[in-house]
């Protein structure tokens, strides 16, 4: 499997703040380009940072730039300018940083971030918490992140803390948030990026539905929350075996189940495909944040599965999928990498030809997806510029 995008974002920023160290391997995706270019812009004191379509880059780099006292304008492409940054627009001015924005991008910040109490909800995006955690150790004084609601996607914050610890920076979890001591220094370290469980989900679902698949380069002890795909597929009835660096899955008869996606929202497109082929009913809940991704992923998944003949009903925070025979169709990729990849896996189990537009969107996170997909028996004829 390719290296974890989530871990690489964090390690690259920590390495930058440490002043050196090698981070490898790194996948050559648009999201990785966004973070590496943002770091170069900070190093070169450029006055504009283009985060392309990477929400992680945007929400991680904003407080880091503020902690360094940079005056900079953040811009983006696709749907990124519409994605929420409201907590920063409220919090940063409370801590000496001026923000100029109409609610999204472009956003211009100036002033140096000051230490103190940062109060925010835990159910909007864990990326806000990661961004603050990366930045607060740099400040002259101790800080506290106080969560006013339960933290969702906590494994992503756990990953942040683990990567920071690798670079010699400590964070202490409190009863309702995190305490970060100021005046810490990131230490120069090399970092080896582990395999990506988020991308593994597509192939694991494909193997459980259509044929035996073995993936290598995955650590079952990882802090990546998306490794939970193994447990969820087992609840569907999939035959999965986990080895020391491998995960193998055999074609299985799946039965519908209920999935709480609170901590694994990125898994929903792939798991919804499993639900569409499973007997009975599958209920996915706790995924309301999917409405603010590269597309409204709840709506995108439901639209495409219904086009394929599934019986899928949207809910506010997920969907209900009822068993029905599927057929090929023309689908929309919604310029969303996870929609294109999940529907490609889905199409491999259908009669006839399925057409999916926006195939180029995979370049955001996994440019080699179709090569890997075809190498294990997929049949995708990709008509797009790479």
Folded structure, characterized:
The protein is α/β, with parallel strands linked by helices and 386 residues long. 34% of the residues lie in helices and 18% in strands. It is built from 12 helices and 19 strands. Helix 1 (5-18) runs parallel beside helix 6. The longest helix is centred in the first third of the chain and has 14 residues, at 5-18. 52% of the residues are buried. The mean pLDDT is 96.
Write a concise keyword list for the protein shown above.
single chain, alpha/beta, four-stranded mixed β-sheet, 12 helices
Topology of helices and strands:
Layout: H1 5-18, E1 23-24, H2 30-43, E2 48-50, H3 55-67, E3 72-75, H4 86-91, E4 98-100, E5 107-110, E6 117-120, H5 126-135, E7 143-147, H6 154-166, E8 172-174, E9 177-180, E10 191-192, H7 197-210, E11 213-216, H8 229-236, E12 239-242, E13 246-250, E14 258-260, H9 268-277, E15 281-285, H10 297-307, E16 311-315, E17 318-322, E18 330-331, H11 337-347, E19 355-356, H12 369-375
Parallel strand pairs: 1-10, 2-3, 6-7, 14-15, 18-19
Antiparallel strand pairs: 3-5, 4-5, 7-9, 8-9, 11-13, 12-13, 15-17, 16-17
